[in-house]
Amino acid sequence: xxxxxEHAHGNTLTLRSIGIDTYRENIIYMRADCxxxxxxxxxxxxxxxxxHGPKNIIATLNVVHSQLLAHGEAxxxxxxxxxxxxxxxxxxxxxxxxxITSLGFVRAKMYxxxxxxxxxxxxxxxxxxGRYSNIELAAFLVACSGDHLNENxxxxxxxxxxxxxxxxxWGQGPVMDxxxxxxxxxxxxxxxxxSIAAAAGLTIPKTSSRAITSPAGTADAMETMxxxxxxxxxxxEVVKREGGCIVWGGAVDLSPADDILISVEKxxxxxxxxxxxxxxxxxxxxxxxxxxVIDIPVGATAKVRSQEEARSIGARMExxxxxxxxxxxxxxxxxxxxxxxxxxxxxEAQDVLAVLRNDKDAPRDLRDRALTxxxxxxxxxxxxxxxxxxxxxxxxxxxxxxxxxxxxxxxAQGGFTEPGVAPHRYDVLADHEGVVRSVDNRRLARIAKLxxxxxxxxxxxxxxxxxxxxxxxxxxxxxxxAEAQGELDYAIAYMKQENSxxxxx
Amino acid sequence: xxxxxEHAHGNTLTLRSIGIDTYRENIIYMRADCxxxxxxxxxxxxxxxxxHGPKNIIATLNVVHSQLLAHGEAxxxxxxxxxxxxxxxxxxxxxxxxxITSLGFVRAKMYxxxxxxxxxxxxxxxxxxGRYSNIELAAFLVACSGDHLNENxxxxxxxxxxxxxxxxxWGQGPVMDxxxxxxxxxxxxxxxxxSIAAAAGLTIPKTSSRAITSPAGTADAMETMxxxxxxxxxxxEVVKREGGCIVWGGAVDLSPADDILISVEKxxxxxxxxxxxxxxxxxxxxxxxxxxVIDIPVGATAKVRSQEEARSIGARMExxxxxxxxxxxxxxxxxxxxxxxxxxxxxEAQDVLAVLRNDKDAPRDLRDRALTxxxxxxxxxxxxxxxxxxxxxxxxxxxxxxxxxxxxxxxAQGGFTEPGVAPHRYDVLADHEGVVRSVDNRRLARIAKLxxxxxxxxxxxxxxxxxxxxxxxxxxxxxxxAEAQGELDYAIAYMKQENSxxxxx
Lengths: 505, 505
Fold this sequence. Notes:
homodimer; alpha/beta; Barwin-like endoglucanases; Transferase, Pyrimidine Nucleoside Phosphorylase, Chain A, domain 3; Pyrimidine Nucleoside Phosphorylase, Chain A, domain 2; 4 domains; 6-stranded mixed β-barrel; 4-stranded antiparallel beta sheet; 19 helices; 42% helix
């Protein structure tokens, strides 16, 4: 009885592991008749502060009306256990959540007010600390979507995101980086560009993201060939030894706010301009980059649909880059169809390897794009005269120096493995003769995602029908790859709904 | 083994009751190693279709990594069990969710596109069917917040909400209704106006809402005196017998989309103009009302802060009302301070009873407001000449006919009870002498909510310091009421943070 009284007074509960994975959102499970619930007046969806020693998290309450928990016990979602650094049997205290001041700024933004640098810093600080529920994260993202952030706000958001995590320092000399403004399936130039640049003696500590709304991010594709979730110390070792690396940005804790926001952007399938610019440039700056090449593919079904839109985004990125002290070069490229043949992590990795290995049937479009970007980078860094970059890049690739450097980077990151092949496949054949007129990148990406990409690493699409190709009746247009029959069936069902993925006549 | 194979093939699982209350969001719990998870490739936060006989729901997946569920079992949140009409031991099948088309319209709205009537109908149909996650509901609400909905969109949204639920028909003659555009604590005129109007022989089948962001809605206050969650048949009986009722709108399934949206608006503490107008007028139209009086209190810390804003909202409401065939009268009233003395369900109910019973110390401001609104209503319905409405209303109140009608309505709804008094109270005293200059309605509402209102029915504030009152040092400004000591402490802590709730000097 005495112990119960102490508990009631101190609002403490003993943790029980119930093993529920709620993804990124912290959930605390408490009995409806628990003494803390009763004395504090908590109810379902209440947001609470959970304290464990010096650490604390904010969690959403789910009330348990069963024997899942004993009296005096609380459960936590797996992520909440991890964030709190707690184990079963540990004691936690729970308390009401003070009103989160920065949510007032989010509401002001909904009503069209401009956010100050201080406002955005407060919001990003709270997001990073896990103080926003998924609903609140969605509200912030949507309030900033469309063109609702002006240039000053994007600069402030970028600076706030940089400040939210670690900042890397690579010492003297230029530190190179590149980024492609998504939307183009298979456009996996990064491993090739990094290999060429590092082989030329440049420092290029590349952090890449996982897919947001696409079937694969560079980190997903790279992961099928080498480990990518290196911590900062391991990343430093790789770059010190090889000049470059290709790792997942989330694992090195650069711009952690961005990773939290991306999880909700993904669930909503949105990626707005202001958030995108802040996301990209904050990661570059936090990674210690000084020179960045930006590739913006333009096409009717790419993310950026017109030259005008691409120039506007490019100009805005240049303004923000300048404000935060980055040198930037923006390249507009063809975004009318997929690059290479693979769409999905392992399938894209196979294209990358074919280019690096100078295979005769390596996808020429992927090779040309990678050489263009590497050439610009070599010129920016003063490694060759203006206009000669692409020749220099080509000679590094064709000499075998690039693939040698790539394999060395993979070894340094933990060892190279050949990407696998999916067990379930379905060939999509032409039902008439014709010439390919257009390719719907969005539908292809959707099919690859329904087939399981990027979570199923070998899932996706192998694409055989580039624009302008003559197609005979019965010829292979593309193959869907999947790791589970259910996913393959689902992708096929979606594909068959409309016959417009590839137009040929 | 044979049964297992059938299960694996048909994607079926047996339901287990694990008793977790996730509020309105449907959650399905499945084992990480479950055959359906494996063969379908599901992972945490995946959205699934769960089928049970002819019914189906969409649920978010939480993956279980423990022995909480046995092989072949799935758990559902309490709300998901209820919506699916399922019981422990029932068999359900689960499948991937087809992309929700209407979410494309929500994304278009984020980018500033106008939504068509078809777009809004599709969105509201999916919201009503529970197809949106909380994140997606937040995205829709925020995309429509501020001034992002134009008049056509508000009209279409209103019509879509009306179509989402039942529509009541009360036969011939005018059907009266009233609504107050919130933001003013204690402004509980509805039970008084309904009693006067019904006593005058009018039909007034009043449905009220629970609190969205305030410490009490009319339904919350009324619930401390009589049952309010009547279904449609019960509501009809009450109105047939007494001419009027005061019930909770959610229980009669009018504009159910609105109830779902309100739960997320509440979590985000937002209530935007377009959604508000659609919410109010859809409920009125669905309830079969023909004549509506709208009260808009205006004040620096009320929801509507200026005469200009109030006139703009009023004009917009008139346009929408006309489009959907409602007669509307808008009254602008004083919103500078709380109405009556109570803030919180039971405390506001006590003020209502004092006015109805013609108590000598009944709050005069509440009485005057109720008589004004009832007077306008009597005039609109042709029960008296223009200008004589308030006199007629007063005579019905003073004669005792109003309180008699109110008690009859309560009896018809299930029986009258006196509202209770909270066990924990804290008096806030003046620390100096002065005259009350201003009252911060928002801070008072926040304190009442932290003290537990509206969920704790007797919690809230008893207010003693109206503007202009002379206050002696040590005199009572207000009393905080709470049902739990933890909530009382929390409200006191917030109140003490800033000394600006009531300004007197």
